[in-house]
Amino acid sequence: MNRNKTVQPAPQQQFRFNKVNTAPKNIVEQNGKRKIDNPAPLLPNPILNGEHKKLKTDESSNENSPNGQIPETKKHLQMLNDLTLFHKVKVKYDVINESGPQHAKTFQVKCSIYNPETNVELESYVASGTSISKAKQSAAEIALSQTKLEKPTAEQIKKKRSVKKHASKENQPNRPLSPLTKSRVSQQAEIELHKLNKRLLYDKHSQIEADKHHIELIIDQLKKFETTLLSMLGGHVEKVSPIGPFAKGLMLKTDKLVQLVVTLKSHPDYHTVKDLIDKLLQTDLFKKSENTESDKIYVDISSLASEYCFYFTCRCDEFEAKFQVLFTSDDLAESKEIVQGNYLFPLDHCTKLNVALKQQQWFENRFKNAPNSLVVLKLLRDMCKRDPDWHLDDNLLELLVSICFQRKNTQDLNVKFREFFELIASGALLLSEMNIDCKYLGGVDSGEVFCLRDFEGNLVELERSRSENLSRLAQHALRLIAFRKIDALFAMSNNKTN
Question: Which of 166, 292, 329, 495 is the residue whose CA sits 20 to 30 A from 81?
Answer without folding.
Answer: 166
